[in-house]
Amino acid sequence: MQLNVVYVTVGTTRFDALINSLTSHAVLSVLQARQCHKLIVQHGNSLPLTEIQLKYIEDHFGIQVEQYTFRPNIEDIRAADLIIGHAGAGTCTDILHNGKAGLIVINDELMDNHQVELALQLASEHYMYYCTVDQLSVNIATLAFEALKPYELNPANMQKLITALDDLMKF
Amino acid sequence: MTNTGTQTAYQYPTYVILGSGGHTAEMCKINRALMRQQSQQAQKYQPVRYIVANSDTTSQSILKAALPDTSSQDFINVPRSRSVGQSWLTSIFTTLWALLWSCWLVWRDKPKLVLCNGPGTCVPYCYAAYLWRLLGRLPAHSKIVFVESYCRVETLSLSGRLLLPLADMFVVHWPQLAARYADKQNLRYFGKIM
């Protein structure tokens, strides 16, 4: 599967290791091999890439990088062929509800981060993949993103909750 | 407003406690489902009052976008118990102040239902409702419903642990939690709902 546009997002967290890995030769060359020509980076509270790095990436790998701190990101999500993100619930649900290929990168520096629970659960149900920063390049190169399952939501379940609520209230 | 005998029971509000971004987004989905059901049923939850922390304009705009029928009067602004970066000493006073507010509001409005999904701000409202119901200020049939956060798969949140003993219905999103608390009568699992 071609990954023409890749969106990297870290929400409000600081995840320098992930943002930094985007400047590594290993990651950039596998992105290039997957025909990536645009990288959109929402770096939040992490350190952004420098002008020199941006120019280097464009010149050597033909990948144009657009980076920003925060902005409404629905357009970025829709444009992406792959979303690489931290294990935040917001990122996970954005991936699920927009039918996108997703690769969650676990931040080892955040101990006791309960949000990892959700990413691991969703990965175990084949809705997305996860890895650590070290494994990022190998995973981008080898994962079968087209094999991920679409998220199926049965509206009857929410209805059961509402019915239970009506029953509880005796409405 | 004129109320016939049967409607009187419904004049008490439903309190929906909003928190920060993620919690509010999840609550919007529940609320939309609640308000979209057959109108007669939805009507029984009215009037709905959304509790938002002062200065949390984001939650208010997320909710208004999801439920365009809501007006500014449907929101009750309450003091925030603690702002990010606030010092520990002043936090004690602001938390106490927020606590007093929740007790006062619940006493004043006698909500028939307190519906919340996990932000820390919801805890005092649930305890206040429980307490006032116990003391007879709230009708005995008023209810407290807690929906755990979607991202809780294996363990309950702190709010969840504090409210599991007193919630009339406690909803979880994942089978692991349903299995772990299988002995709790009030704990319910409906499969994936969001």
From TrEMBL, chain A:
Primary site of residence: endoplasmic reticulum
Subcellular location(s) per record: Endoplasmic reticulum
Xref: Gene3D superfamilies: Glycogen Phosphorylase B
Entry's Gene Ontology BP terms: dolichol-linked oligosaccharide biosynthetic process
Residue ranges annotated for the Glycosyl transferase family 28 C-terminal domain, each copy included: 5-158
Short name of any one Pfam family annotated for the protein: Glyco_tran_28_C
InterPro entries for this protein: Alg13-like (IPR039042), Glyco_trans_28_C (IPR007235)
Keyword Transit peptide: no
One cellular-component annotation, GO: endoplasmic reticulum
Keywords in alphabetical order: Endoplasmic reticulum, Glycosyltransferase, Transferase
EC number: 2.4.1.141
The family this protein is said to belong to: Belongs to the glycosyltransferase 28 family.
Protein name stated in the entry: UDP-N-acetylglucosamine transferase subunit ALG13
Native organism taxonomy: Eukaryota, Metazoa, Ecdysozoa, Arthropoda, Hexapoda
TrEMBL record, chain B:
GO CC terms: UDP-N-acetylglucosamine transferase complex
Subcellular location(s) per record: Endoplasmic reticulum membrane
GO molecular function, one term: N-acetylglucosaminyldiphosphodolichol N-acetylglucosaminyltransferase activity
InterPro entries, sorted: Oligosacch_biosynth_Alg14 (IPR013969)
Keyword Transmembrane helix listed: yes
Membrane topology summary: Single-pass membrane protein
Keyword list, A-Z: Endoplasmic reticulum, Membrane, Transmembrane, Transmembrane helix
One GO-annotated biological process of the protein: dolichol-linked oligosaccharide biosynthetic process
Transmembrane stretches, start-end: 88-107
Gene3D superfamilies in the record: Glycogen Phosphorylase B
PANTHER family: GLYCOSYL TRANSFERASE-RELATED, UDP-N-ACETYLGLUCOSAMINE TRANSFERASE SUBUNIT ALG14 HOMOLOG
Family indicated by similarity: Belongs to the ALG14 family.
Protein name (record): UDP-N-acetylglucosamine transferase subunit ALG14
Lineage: Eukaryota, Metazoa, Ecdysozoa, Arthropoda, Hexapoda
